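Q: My labmate handed me this sequence with no annotations at all. I'd like to see what the chain might look like in three dimensions before we decide whether it's worth expressing. Could you predict it?
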Amino acid sequence: MLKNKKILVFMVVVLSAFALSACSTGTTDKSSTDKSSDGSSVVADAVNSFYANMPDDINKIDQVAFVDKVKAGDSMTILDIRSADAYAEGHIKGAISMPWGPKLADDLTKIPNDKPVMIYCVTGQTAGQTVALLNIAGFDAKSVNLGWNLGISKVEGVDAVIDKTPTEFDASVDTKIDPDIQKAIENYYAGLETATNKNYKISEDDAKKALDEKNATVAFLDVRKADDYAKGHIEGAVNIPFGKGMEEQFSTLPMDKTIIVYCYTGQTAGQTVAGLRLLGYDAVSLNSGTGTAATGTSGWTNKGYPLVTN
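A: Here is what I predict for the chain of 310 residues:
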């Protein structure tokens, strides 16, 4: 009897040790870029904080106000993320060329974080993505409304602050970025090389085709205001208005589909796409959004495609 009790005690000890080992090892791999259920990852926390603390200006600056700041000589870092050729043809005085793509991730540490960062692209969409990524990395970044083509170039008197002389980064700057966030942003831009939708954007025609074919691998997300969604939206789209607290509804989105995000012109959709992709979603923004007078022939409604109210 005593011998049997000793055997029983031994087995209990062994099984307990095995259980403790399994618990400490864990069964779920939560990498820094995964959408973890408890929001514990560094990247997920930073993404959720970005939306939870969204400022009233939604990280955008009006193109006229931006040009006025340049004329006034306000202290800020200006990033031109258009192509190097476009930059060479003419850019805002003092702007640094930082073309959209992997180089943006490579040069993050060269951007000073002690003053505002203003970013512009061609029409605002890729600047929207970049602004979100930079804010998540700890910068105070804003995109210039409607970018160069639709915004800045149309501001009265802008010629006074257009230059062709390149501006370089200050070599003494070495901004510290959290390594997990740095890696996530590097992966974000590296993914452009193999992405089906280049620039993480989708054309109006391709989006309409997916809708008409009732493509089950695609879902539409409308981030416009609820009132505008009610007045008309793309068929089947769900509405999560862009702004503070929107991250609380991300868990309602499907992880197994491509999410086509749209707003009015594509800029806040760009910010949304950046955060969703860092959380593990396959998200792309609809080119030029639903479309406005400013986007001309671009945009869903400007293409003649319908919106529904049901």
